[in-house]
Specification:
Two copies of one chain form a homodimer. Chain A has two domains: 50 residues, Homeodomain-like (Arc Repressor Mutant, subunit A); 130 residues, Tetracycline Repressor, domain 2 (Orthogonal Bundle). Chain A contains nine helices and no strands. Chain A is an all-alpha fold. In chain A, helix 5 runs antiparallel to helix 9. The first copy, chain A, is 78% helix and 0% strand. The first copy, chain A, is elongated and about 60 Å long. At the A-B interface, helix 5, helix 7, helix 8 and helix 9 of A face helix 5, helix 7, helix 8 and helix 9 of B.
Chain lengths: 188, 188
Amino acid sequence: MPRDGRVVRERLQQAALELFSEHGYDGTTTTQIAARAGVTERTYFRHFPDKREVLFATEEELRDLTTTSIANVPPGTAPLLALKMAFHGVVPLVERSRPLAEIRIPIIMTAPALLEREYAKAAALVTVVAAALEARGETPRTALLTARVGMDAFSTAIRRWNTDHSGDLHHEVDEVFRDLRSLTQSLD
Amino acid sequence: MPRDGRVVRERLQQAALELFSEHGYDGTTTTQIAARAGVTERTYFRHFPDKREVLFATEEELRDLTTTSIANVPPGTAPLLALKMAFHGVVPLVERSRPLAEIRIPIIMTAPALLEREYAKAAALVTVVAAALEARGETPRTALLTARVGMDAFSTAIRRWNTDHSGDLHHEVDEVFRDLRSLTQSLD
């Protein structure tokens, strides 16, 4: 996307979040979002297929960065450790998106259709992570289980970081993987 | 629910699955489902709030059995081991539901709205499992991480059992927890 496209896209996101906060998700139209962002409704639909998608605009960036980070882990690293290392590379994006996340999470919670879309996006991300692990030579069986458990660990770390207002997401990532390790010790 | 209610409910489920297979999900109405089951449409809506829900009718039974099985694990059992033991108690229900699952999964895959509802139900089940672990004295932090990872393991076991057409879900449950154990050994 050219630089101008990205600027318009971010303006539309910002306008949508403001309007959703002011009038609720159901009380806002794409016409109003476009007007607030100073573009036509047609431009809105060039960037987002429907009203819901504007809330999920960072997903694509998150997906691409996650894939790249996994690919960049040194070959031969065990799969779950590889994910832990890769997630540290994704931390800056999550930190940068925090202001957006703080507005969008309460909005998503108010509408079942939005929450369901959120779950579907999370499931799609697991598929992407599994594919990235397969590209590193893991079997599909191992890749899927590792992707599921790894994404749970990462989203738990983000949730703790949001809930506890702790300062450092890197620290939460390390801690959740330590917790995971100690949880499984009972399985011997 | 009285026994008669359960019979009607199962007849409605069966009728819905037949019609969805014949005409697709979008090509079927609740009127047709009720007619095929030999009841009025009003009876349909006494059992299910909308057309989607008829596909998720076993969820409630699964949720109740999961909660009971977790509560029945001997006190003092480590949380992830407790889940593994509890899932063995849920296996017979999953095995019994296989004919239904074989019809409903391909239907759910065809409609994004159904798939999103499926994800939301899975997320709700994680919340239920976490609450059951808290009732056993686990902290909310430990309960949530354990519930997420445990449900990942169980759904992976079910998926492998469905994909590989292997005979024994108990065996798949044991194996996926062994895999989980060995995955986390790289984290030391």
